[in-house]
Amino acid sequence: MWDKQKTVWFTKMHGAGNDYIYVDTSVYEISDPSSAALKWSSPHTGIGSDGLVLIEASPVADADFAMRIFNADGSEAMMCGNAARCIGKYLYDKGITDKTLIRLYTPSGIKNLLLHVTADGKVDSVTVDMQQPVLCNTRQIATPEGTMVEGIVEVSGVEFKGTFVSMGNPHFVIFTDDVLHTDINLYGNLLEHSPLFPERCNIEFSQVMKDGTVRTRVWERGSGITMACGTGACAVAVAAALTGRCGRESIISMDGGRLKIAWSEADNHVYMTGPAEFVFEGEIPNI
Ligand SMILES: N[C@@H](CCC[C@H](N)C(=O)O)C(=O)O
């Protein structure tokens, strides 16, 4: 048996297929989360995941808990929409809180989570107030104005038209006529590392389908292709509304599932609703 002091109990969860390892740091201290994310995310020599999420005590009085998110390459991100929903389920289903409205502190501000609980007392979906999208950020996009709406970007001799949207973290949304045949592995990787994005970037390739849903495939900064991205879905919904492709409410359909996004005219906040699921739990040597 492993020495308890040297091991960490983890929970693997996913939100629309975007899978992370969750650790409650009120029980287990992770001294080097960046190295832990890199090591444990490996599908062959670790647990396998898109990254590591720490559930922490809130550093401020007006939030209930806090979240930190590390990509599979060990880089820390400002926000993760799918992880926010999973944290809501983790806290409620494990009896850590009985609140159905949780205030979650993140590096990009406090997010309100509204838990939808079924008759058998389990959370099956969560609505997150993702706050206001930011269309201008000179740190995240290297244009003179710090904005880009339907701008042309060339990578490896191919031109893409894209829109920059920050949901705390940076996103570049590209609408295409054939999303299923776009080489997102090649172009996502090149765009992530383009000098246009000084902090690198998450890239979404999207297509509005006949039924009005927005089929989206995701290349995430620091993790590569993922089955879904919550902040990415919000960015796609905002870009689609901004460019007249959709209204203020849309369904973003990604490889691992669908998210419902509403960009409110009343408060300019983006509300994301979607599932959260447990996968398995286990014990791993601490870093
Ligand atoms: N999958 C997440 C976003 C995770 C962070 C992202 N890769 C970044 O570096 O900004 C989501 O669901 O929002």
From TrEMBL:
<keyword id="KW-0963">Cytoplasm</keyword>
<feature type="active site">
    <location>
        <position position="80"/>
    </location>
</feature>
<feature type="binding site">
    <location>
        <begin position="220"/>
        <end position="221"/>
    </location>
    <ligand>
        <name>substrate</name>
    </ligand>
</feature>
<feature type="binding site">
    <location>
        <begin position="81"/>
        <end position="82"/>
    </location>
    <ligand>
        <name>substrate</name>
    </ligand>
</feature>
<feature type="binding site">
    <location>
        <begin position="230"/>
        <end position="231"/>
    </location>
    <ligand>
        <name>substrate</name>
    </ligand>
</feature>
<dbReference type="Pfam" id="PF01678">
    <property type="entry name" value="DAP_epimerase"/>
</dbReference>
<keyword id="KW-0457">Lysine biosynthesis</keyword>
<comment type="function">
    <text>Catalyzes the stereoinversion of LL-2,6-diaminopimelate (L,L-DAP) to meso-diaminopimelate (meso-DAP), a precursor of L-lysine and an essential component of the bacterial peptidoglycan.</text>
</comment>
<dbReference type="GO" id="GO:0008837">
    <property type="term" value="F:diaminopimelate epimerase activity"/>
</dbReference>
<keyword id="KW-0413">Isomerase</keyword>
<comment type="subunit">
    <text>Homodimer.</text>
</comment>
<protein>
    <recommendedName>
        <fullName>Diaminopimelate epimerase</fullName>
        <ecNumber>5.1.1.7</ecNumber>
    </recommendedName>
</protein>
<dbReference type="InterPro" id="IPR018510">
    <property type="entry name" value="DAP_epimerase_AS"/>
</dbReference>
<feature type="active site" description="Proton acceptor">
    <location>
        <position position="229"/>
    </location>
</feature>
<feature type="binding site">
    <location>
        <position position="169"/>
    </location>
    <ligand>
        <name>substrate</name>
    </ligand>
</feature>
<feature type="binding site">
    <location>
        <position position="202"/>
    </location>
    <ligand>
        <name>substrate</name>
    </ligand>
</feature>
<feature type="binding site">
    <location>
        <position position="71"/>
    </location>
    <ligand>
        <name>substrate</name>
    </ligand>
</feature>
<dbReference type="InterPro" id="IPR001653">
    <property type="entry name" value="DAP_epimerase_DapF"/>
</dbReference>
<comment type="similarity">
    <text>Belongs to the diaminopimelate epimerase family.</text>
</comment>
<feature type="site" description="Could be important to modulate the pK values of the two catalytic cysteine residues">
    <location>
        <position position="220"/>
    </location>
</feature>
<feature type="site" description="Could be important to modulate the pK values of the two catalytic cysteine residues">
    <location>
        <position position="171"/>
    </location>
</feature>
<feature type="active site" description="Proton donor">
    <location>
        <position position="80"/>
    </location>
</feature>
<feature type="binding site">
    <location>
        <position position="18"/>
    </location>
    <ligand>
        <name>substrate</name>
    </ligand>
</feature>
<keyword id="KW-0028">Amino-acid biosynthesis</keyword>
<comment type="pathway">
    <text>Amino-acid biosynthesis; L-lysine biosynthesis via DAP pathway; DL-2,6-diaminopimelate from LL-2,6-diaminopimelate: step 1/1.</text>
</comment>
